[in-house]
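Morning!

This is the sequence you dropped in the shared folder:
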Amino acid sequence: MTDCIFCKIVEGTLAADIIYEDDFCIAFKDLYPKAPVHVLVIPKKHIENLAALRAEDQPLMGHMLLKLTGIAESQGLEDGFRTITNTGPGGGQEVYHLHFHILGGNIKPA
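The structure's back. Tokens below.
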């Protein structure tokens, strides 16, 4: 997908402050943080959002979910963190490439 900002980060044509990367996903600091620590974790495969997931995406999603804690801890969030995924316009999604927000560091409970 050529006009997707997150695909451009995956391709390396758009810079990001990358904190983790493997063959399946990439994590980088959010440009407009909503918490002292705000990281985005995205699959390298373009998937629009949770509603667009298919059965064949199950191994990828399992991989990503298992990586979230280690990524959060690498940013100093050993005491806990919040994970958010927005899906569709009604869910507040702004970038239509599946992503998980990891937020932490002195945030108030919802």
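Headline: Helices lie at 5-11, 58-74.

More detail when I'm at my desk.
O.
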